[in-house]
Amino acid sequence: MRTLGNIFWLIFGGFLMGLGWWLAGLLCAITIIGLPWAKACFVIGQFAFLPFGREAVNRAVVTGVEDIGTGALGTVGNVIWFLVAGIWLAVGHLIAAVCCFVTIIGIPFGVQHLKLAGLTLAPVGKTIVLKGSVSRNGS
């Protein structure tokens, strides 16, 4: 079922939004100073291509320790990200979500676009894992 969902996802805007994430990653990488954001863009871009069966979680939950991306510097990085590129990717996901919600069959894809729109607001410090592989209490 996951595979079928991912195939339909690519048709319902996932392919274009995945390309958008990778384009943002390329633009960040070109600036050199944007390399931390570029890494996040490429990781989340892969997630944007095939989101069903996976989820975004805080990296500190997975590793059990805070790192530079999950602490105070990660918060600063997320604010800078939102002002420079995050808002544009969020708008793209919101437009795709509205287009999906217009049809009955597209509702699950619209929900996924909304989840990704939320992720565009603060991608630094996040990682992608298989759904259900991380417990919510951090153990």
Looking at this protein, list some descriptive labels.
mainly alpha, 5 helices, globular
Describe this structure in words.
The chain has 139 residues and is mainly α. 68% of the residues lie in helices and 7% in strands. The chain contains 5 helices and 2 strands; from the N terminus they run ααβαααβ. A two-stranded antiparallel sheet has the order 1-2. α4 (72-101) runs antiparallel to α5 (107-121). The chain starts with a helix and ends in a 9-residue tail after the last strand. The relative contact order is 0.18.
Broad structural category: mainly alpha
Spatial order of the strands forming the largest sheet: 1-2
**Strands, count:** 2
Radius of gyration: 15 Å
Provide mean pLDDT, rounded.
87
| Poorly predicted ranges | none
Beta-strand percentage? 5-15%
State the major sheet: 2 strands, antiparallel
SS summary, helix count:
5
Distance between the termini: 28 Å
Write the H/E string, N to C: HHEHHHE
> Percent of residues in helical segments?
55-70%
Q: Can you tell me the overall shape?
A: globular
